[in-house]
Amino acid sequence: MESDFAVYTKDLVKVYDGGKVAVDKLNLEIKYNEIYGLLGKNGAGKSTTIKVLTTLMNPTSGDAYVLGMDVRKKANAIRKRIGVVQQDESFDFTTVENNLKVYSMLWEVDRETSKTRINEMMELFDLEEVRKKRAFEISGGQKKRLQVAREFLHDMDLVFLDEPTVGMDPEMRRKVLDYITRRAHDGLTVLFTTQILEEADYICDRIGIMVDGNIRAEGTSKFLKDKFGKLKEIQVRLSDDSNAEEKSRVVDEISSIEGIEEARLDGNSVFILGYEISRKIGKIAMVFEKHDIGIESMESSEPSLDEVFLKVVNS
Amino acid sequence: MKTPSFIRLAVRNIVVNTDPGTIFFMLGLPAFYFLVLGTMFQSIVPGVSVNGSVVSYTKFLAPGIIGMQALTAGNIGGSMLWSDRRWHMFEQLMVGPFRRLDYLLGILVISTVFTFGGSAIMLILAHFVSGAFILTASSLAFTFLALILGSFLFTSVFLIIAILVRTLQTYNVLTILIYFFLDFASTAFYPITNATPLVLRDISMVNPLSYITNIIRSSIDSGYVSSVMTESLVLLVTTVVIMFISLRMYSRLKTVA
After folding, report:
1. Which domain holds residue A303?
2. What is the mean pLDDT of residues B3-17?
3. ipTM of the complex
């Protein structure tokens, strides 16, 4: 069973010395060649899960297998086949180029391959201009790029990326995500954590939303949106001559309709959040009509992954 | 053929730690002691008695300066662990193709290389300033033994500090304090005689640098004296005890801060 998955955990628990339960009976199945996104608020247990899976920490109980190998028994063998970009900045106190050279030497990448890959990474991650600068002199975003570039110098079967795009500008973020996707198409399995939900939406084959050390919801981005995205929002743009007091009464009245979670006034628009809202359009329109408020337009938006995320973590 | 993991880590340590500041610290300070303090005191100290014969002050000082290389290299070794923990490289390396022991061996190898490299340079420098030393097979063997034990011992001492101390300020203050304390409360700079204050005599007796210096001094200044065996034994036991404590603490060190 465990060998069918790149990552497999069964009732995995990690309790810290102080008694804090960081991972609580986690069941995770990540297929080979999959990009799996682990989402969750700070302290949800994402980084601890990665630390256990990368053999940095021993699990308190339960099972964890990486590439078919038990993390307790085959830690050395696992580490030879994985790559890890940790959340914390890490670098050697030497130049950017030396950082990359030393790292590929540590991973025994042969000289010619290393040279080619370093040049590729320098170009891809826009590090050429800081090539000769010492790592501590470059910006936070550049350090993160160096950290990611470094990890892709060596061969591996599975990479753990713990918030790899922190501090990067949108263009660089997109470049990094596209690169990860390309590598996944070439056979790499990716476990990816991020706080930026659009990123997960963009590259992940499947997403798991982690709450209090366990997966609360899991599936493809579309599946999650369909399942949890019934909470929709509509924006009603009002005509300019509407009376302010009447508008406020309308908002109160709409809020009291069953299934409406929230109605708020923002400038000349009323934003209404609710379940199966399309069925309530008639009722909502009648409220406006009753108070003699003209409607210029009414727009409904598709649920975003953010909405799904908030719905799951707050449920 | 595959290069062993600890050798790759040792090479990393050389590349990462061979900045001009480290080189200056390693070679500059002892050379400064030797050239400036040595020649200055030579002008006011006519000669120093070593194992029954009188030698020039620079010749007396040279073994102390050579022995100090083990202390300096140990300090550099300890700072590698501290720095790797502080900048999360220890954590990063521990998710790579290495075992904890490889990392420790990588540091010990590099401390030993720095000890012998620095000692060789100091010996050559001293040779030109003070004249020839007695370099026989036995004097070289005991010097080698003293330096290798000294290197392991001081690396272990500074590794313990690197494990215990978290802040840069405390780490710097402690290492500087230990460095200067061991340097100046030893037989490296002056002979211990009946005229030496009792406190200094006592401290010098328990200071491993005194034993390293005495072994080297007895070997390359005098050829061989019988006390070398006893002092080597004391140094060996001290090294084993300190290394054991250091290894135990290192094995319990949490990878994740």
Report:
1. 227-314
2. 91
3. 0.85
